[in-house]
Structure formats: C-alpha cells, structure tokens
C-alpha cells in the first residue's frame, strides 16, 4: 500500500491518503506535546513504540471482539487503518485517582476507584478540550445517542480487557483516553492506545511508565516507553 497525499498533521501523527479511498496510512512521529501544545519536545523512538504497542493492543482487542480502525502495521512508523470520521468526543476511563481527576476532586493520586469512571471531553483545541456530559453531546449535536452510548460501552469493555492484559504484564492501567470514528455506519475504536494516551504504573513499585514522565519532567522517558513496549509486545 503506497502513501499518497498528506491529509492531516496532528501533534503525534500524520495521516496520508492511499490509493484505496477507504484506507489511510498513519505515520507516528517522535514529537511530544503536553498541556494542549504549551509544552513541546520529542521522545526518541516514541513513534516506533507507539505504533508497535497500538498495533499489538488493537490486535489483542480484535481477538476479544472489539473492532477498531486498525488493519495492519506496514512499517516501524506506519499503520494502515480504515478511514474513519472521528467523533469529536474523547472518552476517558479511569480505575485509579490520577491527573485531572485528582486535581478536580482534591485527592492524592493512587486511590483505587470503587468502579471505573467514564468521562467525555469535547475534542476542540481552541477550547482546551473541556469535559462535557452526555446531555452536552446530544444537545449540541456532537454525536448521536447511539454513537456516544456505543463508545461508552466499548470503553468499559476495553477497560476490562486491557486492564487484565496489562496486569498480567505487571502494569496497572490507571486511566486512558480513547477516540472513536464512524466507518460505514459503525463506531470503530480509532487513534492509538499507547503510553501517550494511557497512564501505566508498574504494578509493584507504582513507577510511572507513561507520558506523565514527559509532562512532569520526571526523567527516563525513553526508558519507560521501551519498558512498556517490551512488556506489552514481548512474550509472557
Ligand atoms: P487527565 O487525567 O489529564 O484528564 O488524563 C486522563 C487520561 O487521558 C490519561 O491517561 C492521559 C490521557 N490524555 C490523552 O490521551 N490526551 C490528552 O490530551 C489528555 C489531557 C489526556
């Protein structure tokens, strides 16, 4: 499959057309941003790791009945995916208190939630991706009830499957963000699932092995990404 014209360049990926109008190539960059682009940098080989980890996790989820835009990994930094119409709602699922939840609720990080919390964020950089609820989604016509309810249900299913998969590899799935896209009337899981979009802590030491190392300048960012890649993609 050959790369044709560039369709879109985001913070972490470039999307190219292919000779098949239903398929795109996603190119994973090393560029890293945080706080809606206010902090910029790069993480060596991040693109390679995020492509590989996402491919592995999308494959694993497909084996467990969760459909996504993923078709195949084409090269170190390229993934072939169905061309979806991205829903402008980011869906976050949380198992432990961390990040913006800790801040919003005035709690320390690390507490286990009695059950998973699912949140919606309006995907709009100019507004800084504000948190919204189901009524906002429906009243403002951001997505249909069917679409948001399907995304919510899939997020909980992904949470269960992914938490188990990662726990077996000594990783706690603290929280994560999913994106969804419409493909021929179906809501498919889209974007990427990787250390940029998940909080991943070592199960025993609670060491952070994700993008928080970059966001919070904790050091050893590359080592953490490599370690996640090794645990997620390696044999048990
Ligand atoms: P938060 O605690 O900052 O709201 O983040 C929740 C989860 O969403 C966390 O796993 C990181 C992920 N996330 C993204 O993938 N992209 C973003 O822009 C933000 C803010 C968070």
Q: Which distinct ligands sit in these coordinates?
A: thymidine-5'-phosphate
Radius of gyration: 17 Å
Helix content: 25-40%
Strand content: 25-35%
Number of strand segments: 14
Mean pLDDT: 98
- N- and C-termini, Cα separation: 32 Å
Instruction: Indicate the structural class.
Output: alpha+beta
How many discrete structural domains? 2
In CATH terms, what is the fold-level topology of the largest domain? D-amino Acid Aminotransferase, Chain A, domain 1
Note the main attributes of this structure.
30% helix, binds thymidine-5'-phosphate, five-stranded antiparallel sheet, globular, 14 strands, D-amino Acid Aminotransferase, Chain A, domain 1, 2 domains, 6 helices, 236 residues, Phosphorylase Kinase, domain 1, alpha+beta
Short summary of the structure?
The chain is of the alpha+beta class and 236 residues long. The protein is 30% helix and 33% strand.
Written overview of the protein:
With 236 residues, the protein is of the alpha+beta class. It folds into 2 domains: 80 residues, Phosphorylase Kinase, domain 1 (2-Layer Sandwich), CATH 3.30.200; 136 residues, D-amino Acid Aminotransferase, Chain A, domain 1 (2-Layer Sandwich), CATH 3.30.470. Helices cover 30% and strands 33% of the residues. The chain contains 6 helices and 14 strands. Strands 8, 9, 10, 11, 12, 13 and 14 form a 7-stranded antiparallel sheet that branches. Strands 1-2-3-7-6 form a 5-stranded antiparallel sheet. Strands 4-5 form a two-stranded antiparallel ribbon. Thymidine-5'-phosphate binds next to α2, β12 and β14. Thymidine-5'-phosphate (TMP) binds next to α2, β12 and β14.
